[in-house]
Amino acid sequence: MTSESDLRGFTIGPLYRADAERCAELEHVLFPGDDPWSAQAFRAEVGAGHHYLAARDDQRLIGYAGLAFVAAPPRAEAEIHTIGVDPVHQRRGIGRALLRALLEPADAVGATVFLEVRTDNAAARALYEAEGFIVVGLRKRYYRPSGTDAYTMRRDPR
Questions:
Q1: CATH number, domain at 132?
Q2: Mind telling me the catalytic residues?
Q3: Is residue 79 part of a domain?
Q4: Per-residue pLDDT tens for 109-150?
């Protein structure tokens, strides 16, 4: 994992169980029409040992991201579970930095990486495509309760 501090004033590092309440707060802001993750869901993911990261501006959590491995080498696969950035801090490269940091351990084992993204989230889809993901499927009514469709995207091993 890369710990980076850059000119944009944020750092990327581990997400801790203690961050769960702030993550849940951001989920409600970012995904109000769907089923936002609870603090307990974040605690469970971190407790399970998945690769979860936080973006911080000083000590305040302003973004989070998580990836889980679902198959080991030689045919390693991983899934990106979530990426979220506080709307006040969007368009500063935080989402891209989180995504790249998530991909490091996947690349280290040559994993294929999958994710789902809302079909109406053009900004996220453009970010994923810029980082090598391609659309490989459509999941109808994937997000609940809104019923919004999702694209399944894949990034081949690096």
A1: 3.40.630.30
A2: 116, 128
A3: yes
A4: 999 999 999 999 999 999 999 999 999 999 998 888 888 899
What pLDDT, on the 0 to 100 scale, is given for residue 4?
44
Within a domain: 17: yes
SS3 state of residue 124: helix
Q: Into how many domains does the chain fold?
A: 1
**Chain centroid offset of residue 82 CA:** 3
Answer yes or no: is 124 within a domain. yes
Q: How many CB atoms lie under 10 A from the CB of residue 54?
A: 21
C-alpha neighbours within 13 Å on the C-beta side of residue 20: 13
Give residue 147's domain range.
11-155
Check: CB of residue 130 under 8 Å from CB of residue 116.
no
Query: What pLDDT, in 10s, does the model give residues 1-51?
Result: 444 444 468 999 999 999 999 999 999 999 888 889 999 999 999 999 999
In a domain, residue 4? The reply is no
Q: Is the peptide bond before 157 cis (omega within 30 degrees of 0)?
A: no
Query: Model-level pTM?
Result: 0.91
Distances (CA, A) of 31 to 22, 23, 48, 56: 14, 12, 24, 20
